[in-house]
Design brief:
Length: 110
C-alpha cells in the first residue's frame, strides 16, 4: 500500500473556507488525504480526502435518518483511526456537534 501523495495538485487556499466541511469539499478535489501508521512506522491505512468526503456524507445522511437533529451532540471515540475522521466529518455535514472522547473512558466508570 502506498501513502497518499504529499502534493494535492490544487492551488493553495488559506483561511477562506466558511466551514470545515467546505474545506474538505475543496481538498477532495485533490490527490492527498490522511495516512495512518503503526507505532513501528508502517502504513496500515490511507484515507484520501475524496473517499473521506463520500463516506462522511453517507454517514451524515444515516445519522439524520436515525433522528439526529441539527445542533445535537454526538459522542465519538477519539482514536487515531480512519473511522474517527469519517464520523467527525459526518457531524460537520449533518450540522451535528462532534464530541471526541478519550478511548480510555468507560461509560459509567471513573
Amino acid at each position: 500500500m502506498d501513502a497518499t501523495p504529499a502534493a494535492s495538485g490544487l492551488p493553495l487556499r488559506i483561511a477562506d473556507f466558511s466551514t470545515l466541511a467546505e474545506a474538505l469539499d475543496y481538498a477532495a478535489l485533490g490527490k492527498t488525504g490522511y495516512n495512518y501508521y503503526t507505532r513501528g512506522v508502517k502504513l496500515y491505512a490511507k484515507l484520501p480526502y475524496a473517499e473521506l468526503r463520500r463516506d462522511a456524507q453517507a454517514l451524515a445522511r444515516r445519522l439524520i435518518d436515525l433522528g439526529a437533529s441539527r445542533g445535537s451532540r454526538v459522542a465519538i471515540v477519539a482514536d487515531t483511526d480512519p473511522d474517527f475522521m469519517r464520523f467527525f466529518y459526518a457531524c460537520q455535514y449533518a450540522g451535528l456537534i462532534p464530541v471526541p472522547l478519550p478511548a480510555s473512558v468507560h461509560l459509567g466508570g471513573r
